[in-house]
Amino acid sequence: MDNQPIPPMPTLRAFCAIAELGGFGRAAERLGTTQTAVSHQIAQMEGWIGGVLFERGRGGARLTAKGARLYPAVAEALRCLEEALRVARADAGRARVELSVTPEFSSQWLAPRLAGFVQRFPDIELALSIGYQTPDFSTGRTDLAIRLGGGGPGLVADPLTADDEFAVCAPSLVDCLPQRHAFLAAPCLTYDGVRHTALDWQRWFEQVVPEVSASGFADRMAVAVCFPTFADMLAACRRGEGFALVRTSLVGADLQAGSLVRAFVETQPSPFNYSLIYPRSALINPGIVAFRAWVLAEAAQPAA
What is the pTM of this model? Predict the structure, then answer.
């Protein structure tokens, strides 16, 4: 055999990500790294192979004939290795579940319920990774993820929510709203990570308050108030500082407690909902099976 070491795992994963996504930038986003790092990895791999693997262009990157011959074998080898490692970890009886979850869902939905999970399964260690980075199941550092939408090729996505979108405000504010054009009575609140919850004031206004013109919407957003996090935005909303656009699953406790109320009658079904996402091979781990059954049962409970 050639004594020269084969390309390392991160390089092989970068190669497969580019082949599957059609671009260096999109691959970097999936892998949680930079486009420069991905380009460097592929350059090293092409040097090792002795040929070009991708044709680069304005539209992205596509496999050359050499790359197309190589990709199926590399992808299958990585899949088999991942599954073998998962089997080995499950056989070792490791009572640990790695869950990747977004900050909003973690604080507003999951956290109030976690005590029940710990009480029922004291031997399972649930490790939370809270953030927006695309979950990477190939490294063994993520077993399950909770995200909006589906999970992508090769992944299972169990639906958790069936949300509506609506505006909320403090009870003190709703009592002061005028009969007409109530949405003009206070600022629209938003936050820096809003794209991750797909809560779009413009889309909401266009669909449920169509009389608001494009210029009228621009005027409304010109005086909008932005906060660092979803939790900060909700805290301001509870203080009566404006309207927050939310989804059902993120404000259930507030609505039940009366700290927030629906500001208007207008509501619409959300085009995106939260799902529990995982590779099918993850279900060989009894701890993962237990968490999946628990979270699906919690999600099936009727809203209070």
Answer: 0.66
